[in-house]
Q: What sequence folds into this?
């Protein structure tokens, strides 16, 4: 039996250049009634939670370090953009969302939740 996650995909932009980037290569989008942080690092896009799981810092007010981690602006906790794993050792996980490039634009995936999701 496959335990692969299922996603609902939402278009976030026709092209990378059309997102409202801040000088730190991070932007906020609102999709599906939810704020999400989008980061750009090495010509790749990454999506994560709007707030840090530790103290609720707004991740888009942080920065991306030289190793490609997103850094919370409050306590400088660092999270891997690919996995959401806390790499500065505090033990938190930052929720991440998959990004897909399709012929008609850029999409973000939200995990489908359902009654049988535990199967």
A:
């Amino acid at each position: 039996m496959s335990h692969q996650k299922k996603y609902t995909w939402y278009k976030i932009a026709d092209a990378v250049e059309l997102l409202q980037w801040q000088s730190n290569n991070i932007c906020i989008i609102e999709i599906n009634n939810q704020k999400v942080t989008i980061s750009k690092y090495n010509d790749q896009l990454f999506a994560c939670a709007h707030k840090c799981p530790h103290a609720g810092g707004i991740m888009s007010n942080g920065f991306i370090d030289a190793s490609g981690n997103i850094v919370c602006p409050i306590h400088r906790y660092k999270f891997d953009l690919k996995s959401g794993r806390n790499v500065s050792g505090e033990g938190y996980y930052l929720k991440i969302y998959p990004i897909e490039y399709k012929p008609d634009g850029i999409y973000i995936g939200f995990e489908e939740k359902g009654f049988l999701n535990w199967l």
Remarks:
- The beta strands are 7-13, 26-31, 34-41, 44-49, 63-64, 69-71, 78-80, 96-97, 99-102, 105-111.
